[in-house]
Amino acid sequence: MIMNKLKKDYFKIVDLKLDEATKKIEYLITQDRLDEANHEKIRRNVIDIFKKMYDVSLKKVYSYENKSVEDMNLKEFRKTYLEFFDTIPMTWLSSLQKAKENNDHEKIFIEELKIETKDKVKSYFEECWEGLYV
Fold it and tell me: What is this structure's pTM?
């Protein structure tokens, strides 16, 4: 029951952000602002990655038949999901460091955009998580 509420609340926010990004991309393309549209595509892709990792985490933690221990596994699910917010960006951070060393401003912008978007998605999850216990 709690997991259903968490997923519903979280996906409501994430899906809204994905829809907003898609609409913004379409608008930017009509305005011939292709660089900005590409940046928005990156933002949308990062959001989508973490949405998919939510389901991966669910399957990993709740892969067995006994669903009656749901509350006991909530914390394990949270831990598993939040680990993706550390592991996935490792390559982004490495790429950002290299871009800074090479003064590659476009690459710096892109990697910082990914990291910033990841932080926002994580905050959406944390808000929903905290909402379960208020």
Answer: 0.90
